[in-house]
Amino acid sequence: MSEDSDGILVARCRKGDRRAFEILVGRYEKPVFNAALRMLRNTEDARDVTQTVFLKVFEHLDDYDPSYRFYSWIYRIALNESINVLGRRPRHDQVVGDEVDERQGVEDELASEQASQRVQGALMTIKAEYRAVIVLKHILDLGYEDIGRILDLPEKTVKSRLFTARQQLKEALGSRGMT
Amino acid sequence: MLEEKYIELIQADVDGELPERSRAELSRYLLASAEARALRDELRRTCAVLDSVEPVEPPADLRGAILSGIKLPGAPARSAGRARAFGFSPQAPVLRYAAVFAGGLIVSAVAFQFGSTDRAALDVTQVAGTMASQDPVANSAPVDAVSIDLEQVSGSVRLFQSATMRVLEFDLTADGPLEVVVSHDGQEARFSGDGPAGAAGSGRYALVLNGPGQAGSPIGLKFIASGVLIHEDVLESPASE
Fold first, then answer.
1. Of A4, A74, A88, B214, which is least packed with CB atoms within 10 Å of its CB?
2. Which residue of chain B has the CA closest to A13?
């Protein structure tokens, strides 16, 4: 059962199979949470986004087109929800640089926390649309084609954004002594 | 100044997406251009830093919170606002419980295995009541359910209800000895089981409560590992069918 494809699991969910949905949650909870965390730099917001994403997935299961990859769909929802949260934040909260998120208890436990915090700080200095391609490429490990599908962008634009984002991050990381 | 075409090829190379047909062309360009080589090295460094960010484990109670907000026809979700730390581990083998009840049950309690005629796996010598000859509610939807995803135990417990009885279905995996205490209307039933090493195959086990006047009253669940209470929960059903 655990090796069922996403499409099969979605089909089972549509028939009311709770366990199939639980498997999907188990499969995508971590990448969705991490994508939201890197977009938002706030554990509580990432948690809320992850819950919202799965709720929306569940509510719109009937709208899911099986000819598309399920992960493209769920990651698109995750990024859109994250960007919505960013839009609701007060402007002065949108660029937080190296400020410490005191609620990041989960990440605080990691041995590489300092480096991750600096990378996260650098990520927060670039625009959300650039951060999104970085998250899809480096956090979710997706290729140009998938990124284009998720962001609804031509592959050429994906490459261009990725390059610009990396150039900006190079500067931000450099100022933090990381490159 | 590097040509845009070569910038794109350099980035594709760093990302492992360089088309084979462009490889030789890029190699020649890199040999000829120190600036191109510098860009490639710089991109590699930046990507290495970004790739070094370790994924973070989601909060332990997130999965349970997600699932508690979902209502599928197959099982009703929990009411909002409960603090929960549940989930479900579908890959793990199912723990087979030997049903050992503490004495003093007033209700008639019956243990049986769904979908199987092999009941030898169950130790029912101390069970009050009789074995169920058939599964009266297997095709109905549960009226309440909990999923558990703790270090010591994971799985689910679902409550089914028919006009004459209520059935608790256990589908649990434990990494060691585990005791489950089912309390209802002032009485207790205790299940004990070993970990996966003692389990053979998969199956679901159930406790049937078919005494009178039970519908509507809550059923308490306690999960005890190594003598320590690791989790408590309550299953509830409608007051009447």
1. A88
2. B72
